[in-house]
Amino acid sequence: MTLAPPAPQTARAAGGLCATARVVARADAAGGTTRLPVLDGDGPFALRRIRGHGNQARVCVVGAMSAPLGGDRLGIEATAEADSALHVTSAAATVALPGRTGEHACYDVWLTVGDGARLDWLPEPLISAAGSDLRMTTTVELAPTARLVLREEQVLGRSGEETGTLRSRLTVRRGGRTLLDQETAYGPGVPGWDTSAVLGGHRAVGQFLVVGPEFEEAPAEVRLLGDAAGDGTRDGAGQGVLAPLAGPGALATAVAPDALRLRRLLDRAARSAAAG
């Protein structure tokens, strides 16, 4: 099972930088571990192998320059081949910034997980700085027995500033069938994004997604998070909900005043999903 992303381009285009980084994890049958036959950084993405845990290979994405800027076309491809285990994180938050031309930037992530493989995609937050315009897509292809843990966090504006424009789409397919397909948009030019029906004044939004065959037999239970749970959580800590998908997985969505409180909510969701 493979994706068909655009051909890589590592060049400074008229409107910005074009670059795609790639990582491939492959099970080592002899050693019972996961190796990384492909670990290719590009443009602003430097890929570093860090200490693994058990049979899991771990990769950290390190920012080599400011990006994405307006006009940039950036991408990351991560593939966990059959029976491998891959964990991807990042060294720091990604900050979307305005560019010289006024064009929007594109940041595309392609994740592929083979049979019996597991991919943990756990980057640091994406920050939408004032004046920026970013279109982000995350596309995931899962084999029927694959496992996925994915966290996505978005912070609207740096401290004391307004947000930029951020449009994001997450598509997950399992065995060729769509499991999740959602799109969000925030910032200038987006109607109603800051109303009580959407963010209600919060500036950090995120989700935690877990998919695996085990949810076919034991679907996740609906659980409220933070203020919504009525469990004594301090007022203003944000709120969210963990709910089963119409398929073998669970999705937590949360909003909070800032990145720290958002992370706490999503960590709580991760513990709840693991507990079943």
TrEMBL record:
Subcellular location(s): the record lists: Cytoplasm
Q: Which GO terms describe its molecular function?
A: nickel cation binding
Q: Name one Pfam family in it.
A: UreD
Keywords associated with the record: Chaperone, Cytoplasm, Nickel insertion
Q: Please name the InterPro entries in this protein's record.
A: UreD (IPR002669)
Which superkingdom, per the lineage? Bacteria
GO cellular-component term (any): cytoplasm
Name the job this protein performs: Required for maturation of urease via the functional incorporation of the urease nickel metallocenter.
Q: What interactions and quaternary structure are annotated?
A: UreD, UreF and UreG form a complex that acts as a GTP-hydrolysis-dependent molecular chaperone, activating the urease apoprotein by helping to assemble the nickel containing metallocenter of UreC. The UreE protein probably delivers the nickel.
Name the family.
Belongs to the UreD family.
**Record protein name field:** Urease accessory protein UreD
Q: Which organism is it from?
A: Streptomyces angustmyceticus
Encoding gene per record: ureD
